[in-house]
Each structure stands twice: as C-alpha cells, then as structure tokens.
C-alpha cells in the first residue's frame, strides 16, 4: 500500500525578522486583492506567513494599521501632485487639480485611505495641512489675499475630492452588485416633458456625473472666477497721458500769462485802475 504524501509545511519567517515596514507593505499588497474593507489582521498574517500575534505586537488594532498605511499613502501622494507656482498660478493649479484626480482614480486604495476613511492619524492630518499651507502661500505670492487664496484652494480641493469619491462609491457599489447604478444614470428622460435635458444628454452629457467633461467644466469655472478676483484686487494702473493732453497741459500756463497781458493792454484799463486807486 502506497504511503500518503505528507503535506509540506509553509516555512515561517524567522523570529524577529518581521518589522512594521514589512507589515505595512504586506497590508498594501493584500488590500490590492481584498480592498481596504476586506483587509483583516488574520488575513494579513496568512499573507505574510506569520502568526497574527506578531502583527498585534506592532499594531494593536486594524485602525492603527490603517493609520500607518494612510501616513505612507499621503506622503507618496503629496510628492506625486505637482506644486502650484506663483508666476503661472492658473496653469499650474489646473495641472495640480488634474493630477490629484488622476492619482486618486488610478489608486482605489489611496482613495479609500485618504478620502473615504473618516479618521486620519495626527501625522497624516499634519502632513495634509502642510500641503494646503504651501499651496495657499503660493497663491498669496501670486497676488491673492489670504482669504481669496484659501477659498480658491478649498474650492479646487472640494471639486477634486467630490468628483473622485462619487466615482469610487459608484465603483464599490458595482463590485458588490453588478446591477447597481448611480443616480445620474436613473434620470428619467422624456423629450415631451424635459426637452432641453433630452437634447443635452443626447449629445453625451450626463447630469451630475463625475466624468471628465463635468470635472473640466467645473474646474474652468473656478479658475475663471479666480482670474476675475485677482484682476479686481490688483491696484489700478495710473492713466497714461496722451500727447494731446500733455501738450495742452504744458500750454496752459502760457495761455494764462498771455490773457493777463492782453487785459493790461486793453483801452481804459489804466483809467479804471486810477479811478479805483482814488
């Protein structure tokens, strides 16, 4: 009778070889397969081929691990987005917004960690604030007031994040239920009752959808408003004198002197002076 083969045991890591960086890296790898929602300490232990207690030694609960992942994700994201430059604030701010959106859309894990999770670690919150401070400082150097610079960057930030989160929630619903749809897909279009809506949507427009067309339109609206704000806050340039005006101003004293001489030479002027003196 043939001997049953003995299953080969998975080789565990050597004691003491695990470190926080390995755990965080493994968590990102696992999240790519099961998502942030499906990530768990036992699953991560199996992925890293270690006992789950080894993970708890460094991260007491899942939130602690997610905070560490968020810190790393935010650091990488902060360096990925191009900086805003004062001498070309509009174009560089446009590129900044586009890159933020593309980065989040291209990395669901990043989106879930930074935009959808309600809790951020203190380090992540500080890093985010420093990034915003840098952008506002650049806009102030470009000529905006502090309030206008704050409002402008907040509007851009909200526009990017809102667009990304709507798309991410739609994708997550699709993962859970293939037949799931978004509100902008369920709008009832009836040419008889909504002819303008039907006409616009027949040309590919989608009301409220976080697509490229709507994102770009909203972005340009914010930038157009900012251009008007900074144009209105700039000091008015002194009016340039035309050659005709300059010549007229130069000739004015000469005209007044000639008029006085003419009055002095007029007939009867000396008699009136003598009468007035007596």
Automatic annotation (TrEMBL):
Residues in HTH tetR-type domain copies: 17-77
Region span, Disordered: 234-278
A Pfam family per the record: TetR_C_1
SUPFAM superfamilies tied to this protein: Homeodomain-like, Tetracyclin repressor-like, C-terminal domain
Cleavable signal peptide: none
Annotated Low complexity bias: 234-251, 264-278
Keyword terms: DNA-binding, Transcription, Transcription regulation
InterPro entries: DNA-bd_HTH_TetR-type_CS, Homeodomain-like_sf, HTH-type_TetR-like_transc_reg, HTH_TetR, Repressor_TetR_C, Tet_transcr_reg_TetR-rel_C_sf
DNA-binding region: 40-59
Name of the protein this chain belongs to: TetR/AcrR family transcriptional regulator C-terminal domain-containing protein
């Amino acid at each position: 009778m043939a001997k049953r083969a003995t299953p080969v045991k998975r080789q565990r890591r050597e004691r003491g070889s695990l470190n926080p960086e390995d755990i965080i890296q493994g968590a990102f790898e696992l999240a790519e397969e099961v998502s942030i929602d499906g990530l768990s300490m036992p699953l991560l232990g199996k992925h890293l081929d270690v006992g789950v207690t080894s993970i708890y030694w460094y991260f007491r609960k899942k939130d602690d691990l997610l905070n560490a992942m968020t810190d790393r994700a935010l650091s990488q994201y902060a360096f990925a987005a191009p900086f805003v430059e004062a001498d070309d604030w509009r174009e560089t701010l446009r590129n900044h917004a586009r890159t933020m959106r593309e980065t989040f859309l291209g990395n669901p894990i990043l989106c879930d960690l930074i935009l959808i999770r309600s809790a951020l670690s203190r380090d992540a919150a500080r890093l985010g604030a420093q990034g915003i401070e840098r952008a506002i400082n650049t806009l102030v150097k470009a000529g905006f007031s502090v309030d206008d610079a704050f409002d402008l960057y907040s509007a851009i930030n909200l526009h990017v994040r809102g667009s990304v989160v709507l798309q991410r929630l739609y994708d997550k619903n699709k993962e859970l239920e293939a037949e799931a749809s978004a509100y902008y897909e369920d709008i009832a279009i009836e040419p008889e009752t909504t002819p303008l809506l039907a006409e616009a949507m027949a040309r590919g427009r989608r009301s409220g959808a976080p697509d490229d067309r709507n994102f770009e339109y909203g972005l340009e609206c914010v930038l157009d408003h900012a251009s008007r704000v900074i144009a209105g806050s700039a000091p008015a340039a002194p009016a340039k004198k035309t050659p005709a005006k300059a010549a007229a101003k130069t000739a004015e004293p000469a005209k007044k002197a000639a008029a006085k001489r003419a009055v002095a030479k007029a007939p009867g002027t000396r008699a009136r002076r003598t009468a007035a003196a007596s």
